[in-house]
Amino acid sequence: MNLKEFIADEETLRLIERTREYARKFFEREGTHGFSHVERVFNLCMHIGKKEGADLEVLALAALLHDVARPLEDAGKVEDHAIEGARIAEDYLRSLGYPEEKARAVARAIESHRFSRGPEPETLEAKILSDADKLDAIGAIGIARVFMYSGEHGRDIEASLRHFEEKILKLRDTMYTETARSMAEERHAFTLRFIERIRLEIEGKA
After folding, report:
1. Which residues contact 185 (CB under 8 A, 6 or more apart)?
2. Nearest CA to 83 among 52, 121, 112?
3. In degrees to the nearest 10, what's the CA dihedral of 192, 197, 198, 200?
């Protein structure tokens, strides 16, 4: 991604790159919620944010920092990575002398990005971050991530397919922004085609 297509200010670009390197240090290994997920969410946020008229600086920082506490939650060290991540992000930005109001806006977006629990996102930037995070769970990437998770946790194909039905196929209807809803439709349709095909193969019909 050429970030200059979205953000022209050189100082802001330097802050984003510094934040990218800061966030990367929290991820010792790849996986379902590795730093590659963060990068995809970041790219989605920039594209959606530009179309929706969001504050791209706040959105970029929130996207890069939204999962910094995920490894801590996975290790059982914190209960909610969204709440802890918001705290880490706000402390980090304050340490750089970042404006208080904007640091809080970044933290609010991170606090409410999680699909499975509240709080509900209220700002446009928070809604876009939530949408981008959910979009990365649908479509070809979403399918790959489901089976990556299954491999990580010893889950078989049937259990993976139940996860699609219980969560992934519900995400399309939870999008907040028009841009994300449009993207989710295509990804949702692709996911349905995949499930139909794998069912045929499991049953020996294809």
Report:
1. 172
2. 112
3. 130
For residue 147, how many other CB atoms are within 10 A of its CB? 14
- Distance separating alpha carbons of residues 78 and 111, to the nearest angstrom: 14
pLDDT band at 116 (very low <50, low <70, confident <90, very high): confident
Higher pLDDT, 75 or 129: 129
Burial 4-26 (b: 16+ CB within 10 A, else e): eebbeeeeebebbeebbebbeeb
* DSSP, res 120: P
d(C-alpha 197, C-alpha 203), whole Å:
10
Proportion of the chain above pLDDT 90, given as a percent: 86
H/E element, 38: helix 35-52
Give the chain's mean pLDDT: 95
Domain boundaries, the chain: 9-116, 137-206
The architecture of the domain spanning 9-116 is Orthogonal Bundle (1.10)
> pLDDT band at residue 115, thresholds of 50, 70 and 90?
confident
Please state which CATH number belongs to domain 137-206. Answer: 1.20.58.1910
Contact between residue 187 and residue 138 where contact means Cβ atoms under 8 Å apart? yes
